[in-house]
Specification:
By secondary structure, this protein is α/β, with parallel strands linked by helices. 42% of the residues lie in helices and 16% in strands. The protein has helices spanning 2-20, 33-40, 44-56, 73-77, 98-110, 125-138, 157-165, 189-202, 217-231, 251-264, 278-290, 324-339; strands spanning 60-63, 67-70, 85-90, 115-120, 142-145, 170-173, 184-187, 208-213, 241-245, 272-275, 300-302, 319-320, 347-349, 353-354. The strands form 4 sheets. It has a 6-stranded parallel beta sheet.
Length: 362
């Protein structure tokens, strides 16, 4: 009995996922029972049980003598006025900058009677897809999403289009996907690194390594800000170095690339490193110190996000702020306005450069 139950549930889920993703569009005629029997290698009874549940859930309807069709599930499955859940999907939940974002968001919406249902993608598009499919079935009142690998990931855009069709209130934080017209709360990544790089120029640095994660838009924008700063310095614009990595790369491999490049420079060695974020900057500083480097005497280090640990390590880390708590509060306020059908607009925060002990004039 449990095996048969598992089979029909799996088949039901696969057909539902194809409907949710748009492979089977509203009013499309579904394949026949015989087709599904052959595709899934199961009995007609198992297929009918799966379809019966989809009919009950308003994803499929039968036409006597004509077959099975995709129902208008957008209408029947959209969030109803009684839903008090807000779906939140982020790349991480329990570490780095995310607890402050989520705690502030929760505080902002809980007073209005809403609760959060959380999903964590670990910056993996497959996990993002599973999260979107799971949450679509729960019919949340609204969505707050941090895109996963926003610079390269397009495989889940179909599901974002489905959220658009449901007319569910939705917004992005930290980044966005091209072609999806949700409002977004993000930092000025380009301008911030442009400002930090020019500050290093102002205190004598010329040979800076920029280390950027390039599979999200934040990293691309930060890298472009770094390059733009050098383009404004014709007398030493050729002295920049960029090391790019992906979120799936191991930090130890990135660290090895940095040190190998540094050691390969016989004269005019790099004098500073600007990191994609504080997480990598802290890792870099720890490993450089383990190998006998002195910071900032041997090299200056700059991060991004003003992670709490940045002010407690030795030396303290020069960094750019991220409006963690403010972004969470603003996201909560904005999504409540959207639920109430009020107009909202995207907003870009301007990070501040926080000068600490990890850099020095030369």
């Amino acid at each position: 009995m449990s095996i048969n139950n598992a089979k029909y549930q799996v088949i039901k889920q696969k057909i539902k996922n194809n409907i949710l993703s748009g492979k089977y569009q509203i009013k499309d005629k579904l394949p026949t029972e015989s087709f599904f029997m052959s595709e899934f290698a199961v009995s007609r009874f198992t297929i009918r049980r799966a379809i019966d549940e989809l009919v009950n859930e308003n994803f499929v309807h039968r036409v006597q003598g004509d077959g099975m069709y995709v129902a208008d599930w957008h209408q029947s499955n959209k969030a109803d006025g009684n839903s008090q859940m807000i779906a939140v999907i982020t790349t991480h939940l329990a570490d780095y900058i995310f607890p402050k974002i989520i705690n502030s968001l929760d505080n902002a919406v809980s007073d209005a009677g809403y609760s959060l249902i959380l999903a964590n993608t670990h910056n993996d598009p497959k996990r993002e897809r599973n999260s979107l499919l799971r949450l679509l079935k729960l019919k949340p009142a609204a969505w707050i999403i941090e895109p996963t690998k926003s610079a390269v990931n397009t495989e889940n855009i179909d599901l974002y289009h489905q959220i658009e069709k449901l007319k569910a209130p939705a917004l992005f934080i930290n980044s966005s996907y091209p072609g999806i017209n949700f409002p977004v709360l993000k930092t000025d990544d380009f301008g911030s690194i442009f400002k930090a790089t020019n500050y290093l120029f102002s205190i004598g640095h010329r040979r800076i390594i920029g280390v950027f994660q390039i599979d999200d838009n934040q990293g691309i924008d930060r890298m472009n800000g770094f390059s733009k700063a050098y383009l404004g310095q014709p007398y030493f614009s050729d002295q920049s170095t960029i090391i790019m990595y992906k979120s799936t790369d191991r930090y130890e491999d990135v660290f090895k690339r940095i040190t190998q490049f540094y050691n390969s420079q016989i004269v005019n060695k790099p004098d500073a490193i600007i990191c994609y974020n504080d997480e990598f900057a802290l890792y870099l500083m720890s490993n450089l110190k383990d190998e006998g480097w002195k910071i900032p005497e041997d090299i200056s280090i700059v991060g991004f996000d003003d992670f709490e640990m940045s002010r407690y390590i030795t030396p303290t880390l020069t960094t750019l702020t991220h409006p963690k708590s403010q972004m969470g509060r603003d996201a909560g306020t904005m999504i409540l306005k959207m639920i109430n059908k009020e107009k909202v607009a995207s907003y870009t925060y301007v990070p501040e450069l926080v000068l600490r002990k990890s850099i020095k004039p030369i």
